Amino acid sequence: MKLGRHLVTNRLAPGPFVLCLNSVVLTLSLEVPTVGHSQIMEAQQVQKRSVDEAEALLDGVSAVVVDIEGTTTSLSFVKKVLFPYITENVETYLKNRSDDEETKADICALRELACKDVAEKMEGCIEIPDGESDEVIKCCVENIKWQMCQDRKSTALKQLQGHMWREGYKTGKIKASIYDDVEPVITQLIDEGVSVYVYSSGSIEAQKQLFSHVEEGDISDLFTDFFDTTIGSKTDDSSYTAISEKIHVDPSQILYLTDNPKEGAAAMQAGFKIALVNREKKNPLITKQDHCDFLVISSFGELFGEDEMDHKKLEGNGDLDASDEEVDDDGAELDDDDDDDDEDEVDEEEEDLGDDDD
Prior knowledge:
This protein is α/β, with parallel strands linked by helices and 358 residues long. Helices cover 48% and strands 10% of the residues. It has 13 helices and 8 strands. The chain has helices at 37-55, 75-96, 101-119, 134-149, 155-171, 182-191, 204-212, 237-247, 261-269, 288-293, 320-337, 340-347, 350-356; strands spanning 17-21, 24-28, 63-66, 195-199, 225-227, 254-258, 273-277, 295-297. The chain has a 6-stranded parallel sheet, sandwiched between helices. A two-stranded antiparallel sheet has the order 1-2. α2 packs antiparallel against α4, α3 (101-119) packs antiparallel against α5 and α5 packs parallel to α7 (204-212).
């Protein structure tokens, strides 16, 4: 009988090889760091899920919906460019445009929201008085900055921000930024008959302005339609159902790309396919458990297998069996180093031990 060289190990976690020979344990130590059993099992679970889901990710998909912040556009652009532009310019903007009907509507929406917040006794809320005095402008500015500090996604706030960013883009004070893979992959999706949509907490106008002022040029025409929180909260599954009905596509045929697991869970509840986007693999929102619950990609190129998957899906790298085979080769080399007597001894037990392998 021969000993099969099928070792249940994982190349992600090199360590001692342990061979059980009828109650005799042979440990072949390698001078490499070891990884705990729970970590090995976790890596295997993540790998397996990535492989299984990635292969069918675009199968049957006729529409793709993308988030913006952290998905098509870096978090740093939003936090370090867009948001500071608002806080630094909002007072001047409101004073210069206080007579514009659009700005009056923005202030009215903020006032109504503030009244609601006060009624609900929301801590820190700044109420906005009636009228058009300097006090109104002052309270609006304080309210806006308070909302931004709370990272609120209110429609009233996003509407005003969109109007301000429009001016920023127009004057050249803001230049939009997207990840390099966004435009080519979206173009490829469209070439293959897939419609692409945007769903962001930013207003529809802000979305259009961003994609109209990127370095690649105006790419806003690539998107079939845009959705914001007027259709519903991004963490509410009914919002995704509404999008599905609006675009007349069955939820099972829609893929949603987002960096937020809560949004992914809501979309999944509505029947969407989901891929979490973990740009630069530094997204603090995505936990180890999320890697098990969702397919996680780090670039749009992975939708077509053009880049390495988060857990090595290409060329069999995500296949645990393939990993075993690679470790087996190492095991073979180790066996070759044994003396002939050891090989003969091992050969006699091969079949029995091979049957015990998982």
